[in-house]
Every structure is written in structure tokens, then in C-alpha cells.
Amino acid sequence: NAGVTQTPKFRILKIGQSMTLQCTQDMNHNYMYWYRQDPGMGLKLIYYSVGAGITDKGEVPNGYNVSRSTTEDFPLRLELAAPSQTSVYFCASLQGTGALGYTFGSGTRLTVV
Amino acid sequence: DAKTTQPTSMDCAEGRAANLPCNHSTISGNEYVYWYRQIHSQGPQYIIHGLKNNETNEMASLIITEDRKSSTLILPHATLRDTAVYYCIGGYNNDMRFGAGTRLTVKP
């Protein structure tokens, strides 16, 4: 049982490049989330999904896209990377509204130069 | 989600109880109080949650005031490994919004 797995752990992008941050969970959780965390700040919700085929915007969705074709996977896409997207990205999952708390991945540290 | 207010930072001596306060005066009747912590640059870790009653688990205790406007997370015997940022969140467990939290430093 691996929990929530994020890849890559580190990445450097040039301005204007695109990339996909991968997130997969093996706990059959319905809810999945993407957060970003800037240095010294709390986490901001980017996108979330309540199940396969359903996604919705969080607090800071601009510049990102997501898809949820399976229960296990919730990739985050950056189309035109900008320096403002330099951050640590965390993926999380939750079994359902009656569950205790989120399970977080270990994060992806992204630098845009 | 309810707005929460936490001190920016706190210190605690190793082996002593760490008491972390949180104000959530705008919390609605059916919103829970959740606590997470984030050690260094790891992903946040769920600690405990409660609605009205005090709660205890293997990690911590949660004391919620009768009017539900504030709560205290208690780590009964803090260790150096408890040094982390602690987040108090008022809301529903499928929509967690994290603030800046309290940076707890446990000192030897």
C-alpha cells in the first residue's frame, strides 16, 4: 500500500514550457486534490475532484488544468510555465466525507526559470 | 470554511505539554475543527478533528470550547520530532483550506 505517489520529486522548467505533474493513489479514494505551497506560506487549493470524470476549481486554478479519467490518477498540467508557478505542489486524497483526514503525497518541487 | 486565527510561532520544552490555540469564531454549527501538521517540507499529516466534544487519539488531544469559537491542540509530551507547522482548519473534511499555521519549535 503505497498511499499517494507523486512524480517527479523535482523539476526545473523554462518559461513557456509545459509539463504534467503525476499523482496516483492506490487506496481507492474518491476525492483527490492539488495544492501549491509557496515558501513560508500555507497551502492553496488549485483543483479538486470528487470522483472519476468530475473536477472543479479551487482557489488558484489559473494556469493549470486537470483530468480524472480513473479513480487512481489525478494529473496536473501546466501549459505555459511562468516564474509565478515556482512552488511545491502537493497531491492529496480522501476516501469520502466520513473519513478522517487527507493523505498527502511527498510533493513535487517545481522551479520555473 | 470558517476563518481561523493562530499564533505565528510558539516554543515548547522537550517533554512538556505543547498547547496550540486556535480561534474560529465564525465556525458554523456543522463545521468541524481539523488539525494537521507539516514537518519540514513534507506533505501535511492529519492529526485529529472534532465537532463539539473533546477528542483524544494516539497523537494528541483536542479541546473545543463550549461556544465552539476556539480550540486547543495538546501534545502531551512534546518531542523534538514534533517540531513542525500546525494548521487549524474549520470546515468540512472534503474541502480543507490551509492558512499559515503555527510554527512550533520544541527545544531540548
Give the DSSP E fraction of chain B (strand runs of 2 or more residues).
over 45%
Q: What is the radius of gyration of chain A computed over CA atoms, rounded to a whole number of angstroms?
A: 13 Å
The rough form of chain B would be described as: globular
Structural class of chain B: mainly beta
Q: Average pLDDT value of chain A?
A: 93
Largest sheet of chain B: 5 strands, mixed
How far the N terminus sits from the C terminus of chain A, by CA atoms, comes to: 36 Å
Write up what this structure looks like.
The complex is a heterodimer of chains A (113) and B (108). Chain A is mainly β and 113 residues long. Chain A has no helices and eleven strands. Chain A has strands spanning 4-7, 10-13, 19-25, 31-37, 43-51, 54-57, 64-66, 76-78, 87-94, 103-104, 108-112. In chain A, strands 2, 4, 5, 6, 9, 10 and 11 form a seven-stranded mixed sheet that branches. A four-stranded antiparallel sheet of chain A has the order 1-3-8-7, with no helix packed on it. In chain A, a hairpin with a 2-residue loop joins strand 5 (43-51) and strand 6. The model of chain A has no long low-confidence stretch (mean pLDDT 93). With 108 residues, chain B is mainly beta. In chain B, the strands form two sheets. In chain B, strands 1-9-8-3-4 form a five-stranded mixed sheet, with no helix packed on it. A four-stranded antiparallel sheet of chain B has the order 2-7-6-5, with no helix packed on it. Chain B has no helices and nine strands. The mean pLDDT of chain B is 92. In chain B, 0% of the residues lie in helices and 46% in strands. At the A-B interface, strand 4, strand 5, strand 9 and strand 10 of A face strand 4 of B.
Element layout with pairings:
The complex is a heterodimer of chains A (113) and B (108).
Chain A: E1 4-7, E2 10-13, E3 19-25, E4 31-37, E5 43-51, E6 54-57, E7 64-66, E8 76-78, E9 87-94, E10 103-104, E11 108-112
Parallel strand pairs in A: 2-11
Antiparallel strand pairs in A: 1-3, 3-8, 4-5, 4-9, 5-6, 7-8, 9-10, 9-11
Chain B: E1 9-13, E2 18-23, E3 32-38, E4 45-50, E5 55-56, E6 61-64, E7 70-75, E8 84-91, E9 102-107
